[in-house]
Known about the structure:
- The chain is mainly beta.
- 8% of the residues lie in helices and 65% in strands.
- Strands 1-2-3-6-7-8-9-10 form an eight-stranded antiparallel barrel. Strands 4-5 form a two-stranded antiparallel ribbon.
Amino acid sequence: xxxxxxxxxxxxxxxxxxxxxxxxxxxxxxxxxxxxxxxxxxxxxxxxxxxxxxxxxxxxxxxxxxxxxxxxxxxxxxxxxxxxxxxxxxxxxxxxxxxxxxxxxxxxxxxxxxxxxxxxxxxxxxxxxxxxxxxxxxxxxxxxxxxxxxxxxxxxxxxxxxxxxxxxxxxxxxxxxxxxxx
Length: 182
């Protein structure tokens, strides 16, 4: 229920900003884009100095997207957290356990929908890889883009990752994107 509530909150907040009108004066041509973001990943059930608390880590994002229509795209999104950490979670028997993660890398296949000019809503599935174990994850997110000259864009994103039977995380990032083939 918590995950559904967070997703609905994200959609309501983001959709309130996406009431823009898009002109159809130009014919759409499919294109590719590469995005790099510096982000901050926040985890609610982290363990620091023996206490369970919110923990936050720097992370880097490298995304590839293919826009095949004016409103739809598909992409491969990759994140790395540059720290080792421990989170508190429950196992399949309901026991509370500590899960170690060593510089995890998440790779997610996402679909994106762009209802207006600036906002894109994303959803996808993938894995978070770490030396301890790999975790299946579901991602929900939104991205705001501001066009710059020569097919560059300024990007701000917010994603929510649900690692199945493990832990959840939020990431907020800022970066740039370059489009090719427009």
